[in-house]
Amino acid sequence: MPYCTVDDIKSKRIPEQTLIMLTDDQALEQIDTAVVDGIIADADEVIDGYLRGRYELPLATVPGMIKTLSVDISAYNLYGRRSEFETPKTVNDKHAVALKILGSIQKGEIKLGAAGVQSPETATANDGMLMNAPTRLFTEEDLSRY
User: Fold this and answer.
1) Is residue 36 a part of any domain in this protein?
2) In a domain, 1, yes or no
3) Which Pfam family, any one, appears in the UniProt record (predicted)?
C-alpha cells in the first residue's frame, strides 16, 4: 500500500498544471499517473529503509506523518525528473526536513504512534532470540576429568 497518492501530492505540494508538466512525457496534456506512482514507490522505499528494523513492514496503517513525508520526498523527486524546472525552495526545504525526521525515527527519537504500527520490541511474533552455536569441543564429562 503506497504511503501517499497522486491526489495527496496535488492537494498538498504541486498544482495540477505543474504536475502535468513534470510527468507528461507523451505530451498528452494530463498527469501520467504511472510516472507519479513510480516516484511514490521510490519515496516509500526510502522511507522503509529508515523504518526497517524499528517497525514491522509493511505498515498496517499509514500514520499521517509518514504520508506527509512521502508527499515531500515524492514532490522533490518529481521536480528532479525535469532539469529545465527549478525546484522551489519550499520543496527543497521540505525534502531536507523529511530526511531529518526519518533519521530521528530511525534513531528512536521520534516514535510513530498510530494504530496498527508496531515496533519489533512490541510485536508478539518475534518474542525470543534464536542462536546457533557450534558443537562443544569439550563436553562436561571431558572437563570433569581435570
Assistant:
1) yes
2) no
3) Phage_Mu_Gp36
